[in-house]
Structure formats: structure tokens, C-alpha cells
Amino acid sequence: MLPEIAEGLVLGANLQTLWCGPRMWNRSAGWQPCATAKDCPSFHLALARGLKVASVQCRYAAPPSPASPHCPAWALAPSHVSHLWLPPPCLTCRLGAPEWPPGQSLDGVLWNVAWPWKDGGQSATCRPSCQGGVCINLTHMDRILKLNPEDFSVVVEPGVTRKALNTYLRDSGLWFPVDPGADASLCGMVATGASGTNAVRYGTMRDNVLNLEVVLPGGRLLHTAGLGRHFRKSAAGYNLTGLFVGSEGTLGLITAATLRLHPVPEATVAATCAFPSVQAAVDTTVHILQAAVPVARIEFLDEVMMDACNRHSQLNCPVAPTLFLEFHGSEQALAEQIQRAEEIAGHNGASLFSWAKEAEERRRLWAARHSAWYAALALRPGCKGYSTDVCVPISRLPEILVQTKEDLKASGLTGTIVGHVGDGNFHCILLVDPEDTEEVRRVMAFGEQLGRRALALHGTCTGEHGIGLGKQQLLQEEVGAVGMETMRQLKAMLDPQGLMNPGKVL
Hints:
five-stranded antiparallel β-sheet, 14 helices, globular
């Protein structure tokens, strides 16, 4: 038996597939590997509690390395969640990242649960997830639950990824356009408030989530817009859906999401054009938006990034500040959009306009853009990448990009600038030797300076990456004391024990 198993929290039944971590509890030997699936303690616990389990999978063949400071516990992944079983309070363990395939974080945003433990009969406070806890892996919950084509909506479980959904929708004439680059899990994209290259036309995750099913820390099940509802607008009560979008796993576990879908465009054309300066490229972006040209994507890459992409993706683009653009619409509408965009770009000194009309050409172009991170890493083999992002009002974008480019040169750091400039958001990817403490210090100082510059221009310290651990001080400077206190009160009300992703955001 597991220690103190009677104190475990079991809420609900009908688990289609139960899966566990690597180890069983033995009073004399402690944690041991499960010999077979039938030996899984989670399986026996479920039966003892009267749960219906169709199958059980042991996720590990051997225990983790003795050098690992944290002991993985098991997690349950029901294929249809109306309730969720969570580990007993005595366990302060977490599952390793390799068993969480879609997981990705840039500012220390991870989904963990930390449980209070007992020491000498006294209850201790929760341990921050960066020091231990339980990571709940929901990747096996990968069903598309319901498609409503006439209502342009779909309901997905947390393990469904962006590409898997669009493959499923291929014959429906619909698609889900939010594209952060990686084949991310959709509920993970909800939790991080993801965005990407299509946001300038189709919006971010905040604009494309209609309803959420959330398991709250106490075990209650919340449907943020009401059970089964998928309307486009409502004036009923508080916007609970918006509260959980971008909450970074600190308020509850998202176990299903109702997403807004869009019609597949009749025609698509992509293009690249080079500019004599950063100022000219960004001015073109602002002018295209001011002219109401309905561009679907407009991405900026500085000359360092373009050089890296040429090498990494075998492109033959000019090594100069460059815009990647894409237009969606009918054939007639595209002709007008292309003509207007070329006129504006030419007025700002653009050269070598290159159009990609065939699907394979466009795929290669955007694959190079989405591989920008790996292309940047190749600039200094053996070094690590540090990425940060900010977002400012469109009118201030030329100013901050030019200043950031100057700061990057003055710092002596190796880095690139790439951004979704259509909505005022851009990223800096810096290459750093983690063994060089002075270089690490300069990188961190650059990130803080960039965040504060964005705040001074009435922007935000992060447009996409989130707060996590890395930008908590900047968040305080952005929203102020009253804003922080309001967030803390919301967190305390929903998660009074501080179990969900403790230590993150606030």
C-alpha cells in the first residue's frame, strides 16, 4: 500500500485508461519499479475505490536516476474527465519532462501541482513547483470530442495538438489558425495565451476560445461559459473563460476547450521583401495596417536572423531587414491586396519582392520562419539560447525596434530580432555561454531593459511568452499594486492552498 493512502483524494469514476508513474511503495524498500501493469498501485487504488478502469499502462520500465532529487509520482489521465484523481497529500513528487511531449516553456511557465507534506506531525507549506511537486501529464487525453461545423466550433481534449486538429478538419472547409510555430497542444496554448504568425488577422487564443472545462484545485468541475455552450458573444456575468486563458496553469487544470474555427481561405499568397533598414521595414508594416490591407501574416526578421535562416534552411534571401507576408482571400481580392502592399513597400525602399503562390513554396518559406530559433542557435554552436519578448502599440513599434537594435549592438551580445510585427510583438533571441557569468549577467540585464522600455512606451513586458518565473518584477511594474493585489485575491480564492503551479506569475 501507499503511505497514508486513505488521505488520497479520489473524485469520480469511469476512467477509460489509467496510467501511472514508475514505482510502487514497499514498506521496507521504499519506492520500487512496477513489475507489471497489474502491480501498479494506481490500478489497485482505483479498484478499491470502485472506479471502472478499462486498462492500465505503466509508463516507465525502470526507476529514475538516483541523482534525480524528485521522485516521480503517478498521474491519472481519464479520456473523459468529469472528475480528476490527484495524488495524496503526502507525496511531493513530479513526473519528468520527457513524459510530457508537447511541453515547452520560455519564461519558466510549467504546469505543476505541489502538495503539502507532513514533517513531525506539523503541516508544512506547499513547495514551489520549481523545487518539487507533481507534473500532471494530460497528453493521452487526445480526443476531438465534438465538431460543430455550422457553428464554426470544436471541442478538444488537452492532448490534441494544433496540427492534429487541422488534419482532422481537412475535409470540413474549416481550420484553426492560431499558429505559435510548434505543434503545441491546444489546451496548453490556452493556458499560455498563445499567439503566433496569424494573430494579425485571426487574433490570439484569447479571441478564439469559446468555453473551457476546468478542474479547480479543490476538485470541482467548472464550465466557464456553461455546460455545452459555444456562442460567439455574451453579456452574462463575468468573463470566466478569459480568466483562465493565459493563467499559466496557476488556477486550474484545463481538461477540454471549445475553440472557434474559421473558413479555409479560397486562395493564399506569401511573399518576402528586403529593406535598406529596420526603420524602413517597420514603417512599411505600420503603413500596410493603416491602409487597411487585410494581411494575414506580417513577420519581421533582422539581417542577422536572415543570414542564420539562409544557412539553416537553405534559403537564398538578401541578408537585410526583411518582411515575410501572407495574404488570404479570393483571387480577385488577393490581386488588389498584393498591388497595394507592393506600392507601400516600394515607397519605403523595398527591393527584391519575391512571391510564393504554390503551396510547397509557401510551406518552405514559413518552415524557415518557424525554424528561426534553431537557426539562431547555430550562430554560436555549443551556446544556449535566451529568448524574450515584448509588445507595444503599433505606433511605437518603429521606435522600440530601432532602439533595441542599437542596444543589441552596444551590448556586444550575439542576438537576433524576429517578430509578429503586425500586432506590435517581437522577440530577441540571444546566444549565451552559460558558463560565462558575466555574459549571463549582460543577457539578463538586456532582457530587463527591453521589458522596461516596452512599459515606458505603454506596452507590455510580454506579448506571448508569459510571466512564469522570469518576469514577475516586470509584471508588478506593469499592472501596479492594485492590479497585483487583485490577482493575488483571485488566486487565493480559487487555489487557497497554493497547489497549482506555485511560485509562478505572482
